[in-house]
Amino acid sequence: MHDVAARAGVSHQTVSRVLNGFESVRPVTRDRVLAAITELGYRRNLAARTLATNRSRAIGVLAPAVSEYGPTSTVQAIEVAARAAGYHPLVTSTTSDRESILASLGFLLDQAVEALVVIAPQQRVLVAIDELELTVPIMTLQSLRVDSATAISVDQARGARRAVQHLIVLGHRRIQHLSGPEELFEATARREAYQAAMVDAGLAALPVIVGDWTAEAGMRAATAIEPDATAVFSGNDQMALGLISGLAALGRRVPEDVSVIGFDDVPEARFYLPALTTVRQDFETIGRVAIESLIRQVEGREAIAVAPLEPELIVRASTAAPRSG
Amino acid sequence: MHDVAARAGVSHQTVSRVLNGFESVRPVTRDRVLAAITELGYRRNLAARTLATNRSRAIGVLAPAVSEYGPTSTVQAIEVAARAAGYHPLVTSTTSDRESILASLGFLLDQAVEALVVIAPQQRVLVAIDELELTVPIMTLQSLRVDSATAISVDQARGARRAVQHLIVLGHRRIQHLSGPEELFEATARREAYQAAMVDAGLAALPVIVGDWTAEAGMRAATAIEPDATAVFSGNDQMALGLISGLAALGRRVPEDVSVIGFDDVPEARFYLPALTTVRQDFETIGRVAIESLIRQVEGREAIAVAPLEPELIVRASTAAPRSG
DNA sequence: CCAGCGAGCGTGACCGGTCACGCTGTCGCT
DNA sequence: AGCGACAGCGTGACCGGTCACGCTCGCTGG
Distance (Å, rounded) from C-alpha A275 to C-alpha A271? Predict the structure, then answer.
């Protein structure tokens, strides 16, 4: 910056003013400075700036280390929203063990992030956050906390209810649930909503099969479902895919013998065979809204309370009326 | 740091020594400092450190803004490898337009990254990099540059050849190729290898259908393939899925009427119906090796030249001998 | 005619670390 | 005993920006 100032024949302060778009610089001076900047290929040193202003303009993102559709598309929405608002998104992925969570959190803290968005929807992450007594505003995604000011999510219970009711309306009575990992909030919410929906309809909830979100787990579940179950509500689309594949291997056809409904609506879901009936979550809006709220808080305004988003039932070909009504 | 020093009754320099693990501090002093650190909840200011040392220990990652399996799993491998080596991975996703590429690159430059790994396999990105005349070591992934010191990739041509030859060995003669976007190196490499493999076998290469990697494009391609084609080599798994789905809608069955082979081996591929024959790429190794090589360069040693990785043919149920040989 | 004001720009301190160097005291060696 | 070496720690400059403040000069109004 000193070099730029010398070349433009001004002080370093004037260079700073130009860089930060202050008004009180004559256009002719400004142009001289800008010319010097391009000639020297100057880039301002962000570390020095952060140090002097005590502001990093960085927003930390704690994401699970998976390549699933939901988290990745949420992260991308966060990135564009943050960048559009002039902030730097700092994304770290973490596995679910405590050590990894603390390491990622530590990294973000070292980077002096001004806000934090947490997508890893587990109790362990929330515990770690509470322990560290962070002072920056935090937004947890899909954590299903009641506090709508610091949490935002798709209404999991509502989505699960819609899925189950769709099956009930089709005439199914023996409906089983293939759940995600027990420690995940989303999985728990869907599981409980399944059970509640069954009870509300005067039906008996069948034993829940627990998977790990992978298609592999869905395939294994095919051998575990009750013989007389006519429909399965899968906790996500990947498991639904594996389940359908596993059922096919057992000679059971979807939807003729068993109806299967998923959750998420991944881009490939409509191309599965049969095309998957599922519940769509708007991951992109979640990420965008989270950033908007956080930036409000960073800038001193109050957080915006956001109601849980409405999931949408997408009916395709993997569900049908049971054969013997 | 001043507060910590005061509380421990030492100078700031000694605190710095403890923080950086220098030997020449008595254990008793070290413990006093560490105690003061934890009592005050002190975290060192990374911006100040970066400013003083003129080292950021950050590695920039330029990734495409997609939620596809390949890039995301590569990015994750990069993250763990970088962190394990004591570096900070800074991941930015970019769309394919020039403006977005330059913005992401600018962001990484502002962060003073010491090395750069580029996963966006397009000409445009390489052009932008050349224009900026970056001085940091760069590693391009899947860019298929001949220079093995700055590029690393799975051998696309070899993988494509294996796919085509697999179909030929099964007895197919009319084999068509469903390609990815023309501006992508990987797509180009697979397309050319397809054509070469056909010619080598004394067969006529059929017109190439161009898609955009999405299952949607695969479905559309179902109506575009030659009536007498008995097999299709799809540029990736998603398009293969869409193609199979589209063929099913037209009453053509896989593999009885048409064989389909994909590329990538996404985790779900073995659960598609039929289970997808495909070519596996080791995305994880790509990312890991790239970081290893970059860190060597950052630390003053020469880059390691890595031969293109061997792709692996995974035969499943979506390919079979043609009905009428 | 001059005080007052504001546009336009410069000066020096400061952010929180690291680095080079300097100082003190203890120990071993001659 | 005297000296050098080294362990152990402190001092001040410096990294490259920003911020508060001050200066100069031209213009305006009484």
Answer: 5
